[in-house]
């Protein structure tokens, strides 16, 4: 799903706003003031924020009425309706760190079996949890509080039952906010808090259309319910998607965590929900400010940007930095803009950035062609064709005359001729429009069935959708085969067989084509994403006020639904973080991130390296350190720690000097490559580079670690010292990594990255860190 917003860079704002001074149209701006100074009451903080507005407004009444949010807990700043001239004047005040204009298209949502695949659930083969297993050691995440910024929650789902759960944790300070079809009785010992944030949305769009969404924490979309149940849904037996697919026991990764819901994403007026929602930066900042004060331990945020944004202009990065100061773990989606490189969202080093990969389950619905050829496909549509052959046609052959040739095969709304489509199976290609929307167009035109063919970019990745007619999805190679059959046959025919669920499919995992890629354009010295987790065809709870496709014309109601996106992989890491927090409550957020990164796996279930959706080798710009392994992360051996001050020094080193106004950057800050991160990226290497790292022993009190290195092709890597001796738990050891371009011509292209690894091992633990290097 998509939630979006745009902001002017601060330096452009300063240049452009004076030119726009004659324009008096009011818009929402966020005025960021950094940290709170001294002890002040909430009233005093709000009065201070009013004073800034008094300085640019003509009347006291205008100043007070213009204030939308006053950020009072950890974040110091406010959101207000301002003219460009007023915003320009505020940006010139010394204490003002930045002034950013809000926009509705910058941020958007990034939209059972996955936990069994990760080794965290009792399977169907008599497997019994042992005392040392992660779920028991963590007590299923009991009393850890996970906050979710999303589209709300459907509290009646069995996944949110509080049966057998004890009283609220004493650390909880939040509320259960009433609104449309939602009151305090909808919270319980599982959903312990729920709030909604809509002031920014309504300042832009006007009052919410209550037929589109609930003005409350209740979810009318489905996305928020899905992510919340993925994190912490209770075990619910005998559930499945529409049509009986993926039948089994649904469970979140941490079934006994407490959930705190922060609804920040809303339906876009005059746009179908299948196209996504929008999340306003001022609403998200308010939610994160409250979540920090409420006492959450983990934040799971399946929201990202369409384009990468500088840290000081990215409200998620700013809010997450304040959360890290309180030792809150923050996990975020990498985004769904793949397979293009340098597209990822949420690249801040204090955030766990999560890519998406597959699980070992397929929903097979093959196509039989008139010549007897059988083509593999996947779907979760419950509709079936009569068992006979039907006329088969390519969409471009039956479009209306006014449809442009370059999109004629994509089944876009209103493109197909009903006269030509009636009674036929129609092959549509991916590209523009939504997958389910293409099926809707085929049905509108009278088609009997629908085949969704991947583009070259989508490769072999198949997203299973609950289409509103008999349908199946095929990979790019098979789409070409069917096109060739259609074009070489006088009367092409086909039949789509009913779908069946197949478990233990191989190979798995593989990287989803849609998952956004590195390198980070905001800070190339930080290797992102950090890790990958299941995000393709994930079953979880759903809003009963939405349909499985979210199309207006789809009136089906489901309790559980299958969805794909880095929105689905992010809550897997949120849940794993909660389990680690339960076992190691004193660990820093950096230690938890390090444990997940250095324990991740690189091998699929056929014993070979993880590939992309087309079967080609994947790399760390797709999967980070690899596929998450929560059980191994609970005992990582060594961790790479970093403090709030370390992140501020990192920001100083890349020229961002004012996110915390109480912190003064040193004259010569450390190199950004020396941030103590559990991975290593060296862009544009010119000769030799040496970086410093330190590890903290969290394993055996007396241990010896040796280093293993797999250097990136074309480079040498030396780690010194090569042996680390630890005498006690908590002891730190420092080492250097020197990377040198090999002088012999290796054919490495300028700015092209190659990848390697270095690993500390003691015979029990393998503490692996990826390396990415390019030459200048």
From TrEMBL:
Domain Subtilisin-like protease fibronectin type-III as annotated: residue spans: 674-773
Gene3D superfamilies referenced in this protein's UniProt entry, alphabetically: 2.60.40.2310, 3.50.30.30, Peptidase S8 propeptide/proteinase inhibitor I9, Peptidase S8/S53 domain
InterPro entries in the record: PA_domain (IPR003137), Peptidase_S8/S53_dom (IPR000209), Peptidase_S8/S53_dom_sf (IPR036852), Peptidase_S8_subtilisin-rel (IPR015500), Peptidases_S8_3 (IPR034197), S8pro/Inhibitor_I9 (IPR010259), S8pro/Inhibitor_I9_sf (IPR037045), SBT (IPR045051)
GO biological process: proteolysis
Gene Ontology terms for molecular function: serine-type endopeptidase activity
Domain Inhibitor I9 intervals: 28-104
Annotated Pfam families: fn3_6, Inhibitor_I9, PA, Peptidase_S8
Top-level taxon: Eukaryota
Active-site residues, record numbering mapped to chain: 150, 223, 567
Domain PA: 390-482
Keywords linked to the UniProt accession: Hydrolase, Protease, Serine protease, Signal
Domain annotation Peptidase S8/S53: ranges: 141-626
Keyword Mitochondrion appears in the UniProt entry: no
Span of the signal peptide: 1-23
Family per record: Belongs to the peptidase S8 family.
PANTHER family: PROPROTEIN CONVERTASE SUBTILISIN/KEXIN
Protein name: Subtilase family protein
Organism: Forsythia ovata
């Amino acid at each position: 799903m998509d939630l979006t917003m745009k902001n002017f860079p601060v330096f452009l704002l300063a240049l452009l706003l004076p030119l726009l001074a004659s324009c008096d149209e009011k818009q929402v701006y966020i005025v960021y003031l950094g940290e709170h100074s001294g002890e002040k009451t909430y009233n005093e903080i709000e009065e201070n924020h009013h004073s800034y507005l008094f300085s640019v407004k003509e009347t006291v009444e205008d100043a007070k009425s213009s204030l939308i949010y006053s950020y009072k807990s950890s974040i110091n700043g406010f959101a207000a309706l301002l003219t460009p001239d007023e915003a320009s004047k505020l940006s010139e005040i010394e204490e003002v760190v930045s002034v950013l204009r809000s926009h509705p298209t910058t941020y958007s949502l990034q939209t059972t079996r996955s936990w069994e695949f990760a080794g965290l659930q009792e399977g169907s083969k008599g497997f019994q949890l042992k005392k040392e297993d992660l779920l028991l050691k963590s007590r299923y995440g009991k009393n850890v509080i996970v906050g979710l910024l999303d589209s709300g929650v459907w509290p009646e789902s069995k996944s949110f039952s509080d049966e057998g759960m004890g009283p609220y944790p004493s650390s909880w300070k939040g509320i259960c906010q009433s609104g449309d079809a939602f009151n305090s009785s909808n919270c319980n010992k599982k959903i312990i808090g729920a709030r909604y944030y809509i002031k920014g949305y309504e300042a832009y769009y006007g009052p919410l259309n209550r037929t589109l969404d609930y003005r409350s924490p209740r979810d009318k979309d489905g996305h928020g319910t899905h992510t919340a149940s993925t994190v912490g849904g209770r075990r619910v037996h005998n559930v499945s998607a529409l049509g009986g697919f993926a039948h089994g026991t649904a469970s979140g990764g941490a079934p006994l965590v407490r959930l705190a819901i922060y609804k920040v994403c809303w339906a876009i007026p005059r746009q179908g929900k299948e196209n996504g929602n929008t999340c306003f930066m001022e609403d998200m900042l308010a939610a994160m400010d409250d979540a920090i004060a409420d006492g959450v331990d983990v934040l799971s945020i399946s929201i990202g940007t369409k384009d990468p944004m500088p840290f000081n202009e990215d409200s998620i990065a700013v809010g997450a930095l304040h959360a890290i100061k309180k030792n809150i773990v923050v996990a975020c989606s990498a985004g769904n803009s793949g397979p293009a490189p340098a597209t990822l969202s949420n690249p801040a080093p204090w955030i766990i950035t999560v890519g998406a990969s597959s699980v070992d389950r397929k929903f097979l619905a093959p196509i039989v062609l008139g010549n007897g050829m059988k083509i593999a496909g996947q779907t979760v549509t419950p509709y079936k064709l009569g068992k006979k052959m039907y006329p088969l046609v390519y969409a471009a052959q039956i479009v209306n005359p006014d449809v442009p040739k370059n999109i004629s095969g994509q089944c876009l709304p209103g493109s197909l001729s009903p006269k030509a489509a009636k009674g036929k199976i129609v092959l549509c290609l991916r590209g523009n429009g939504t997958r389910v929307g293409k099926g809707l167009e085929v049905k509108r035109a009278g088609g009997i069935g629908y085949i969704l063919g991947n583009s070259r970019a989508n490769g072999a990745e198949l997203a299973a959708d609950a289409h509103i007619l008999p349908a199946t999805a095929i990979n790019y190679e098979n789409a070409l085969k069917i096109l060739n059959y259609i074009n070489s046959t006088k009367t092409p025919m086909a039949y789509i067989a009913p779908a069946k669920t197949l478990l233990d499919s191989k190979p798995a995992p593989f990287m989803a084509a849609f998952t956004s890629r590195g390198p980070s354009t905001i800070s190339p010295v930080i290797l992102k994403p950090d890790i990958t987790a299941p995000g393709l065809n994930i079953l979880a709870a759903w809003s009963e006020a939405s349909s499985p496709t979210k199309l207006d014309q789809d009136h089906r109601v489901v309790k559980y639904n299958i969805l794909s996106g880095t929105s689905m992989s992010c809550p897997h890491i949120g849940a794993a973080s909660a389990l680690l927090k339960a076992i190691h409550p004193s660990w820093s957020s950096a230690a938890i991130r390090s444990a997940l990164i250095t324990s991740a796996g690189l091998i699929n279930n056929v014993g070979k390296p993880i590939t992309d959706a087309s079967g080609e080798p994947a790399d760390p710009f797709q999967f980070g350190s690899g596929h998450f392994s929560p059980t191994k992360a609970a005992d990582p051996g060594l961790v790479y720690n970093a403090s709030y001050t370390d992140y501020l020094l990192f920001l100083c080193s890349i020229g961002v000097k004012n996110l915390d106004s109480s912190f003064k950057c040193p004259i010569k800050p450390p190199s950004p490559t020396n941030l103590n991160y559990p991975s290593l990226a060296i862009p544009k290497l010119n000769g030799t580079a040496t970086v410093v790292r330190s590890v903290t022993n969290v394993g055996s009190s007396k241990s010896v670690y040796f280093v293993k290195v797999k250097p990136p092709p074309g480079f040498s890597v030396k780690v010194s010292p090569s042996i680390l001796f630890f005498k006690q738990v908590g002891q730190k050891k420092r080492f250097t990594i020197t990377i040198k371009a090999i002088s012999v011509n290796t054919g490495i292209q300028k700015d092209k990255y190659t990848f390697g690894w270095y690993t500390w091992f003691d015979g029990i633990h393998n503490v692996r860190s990826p390396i990415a290097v390019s030459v200048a």
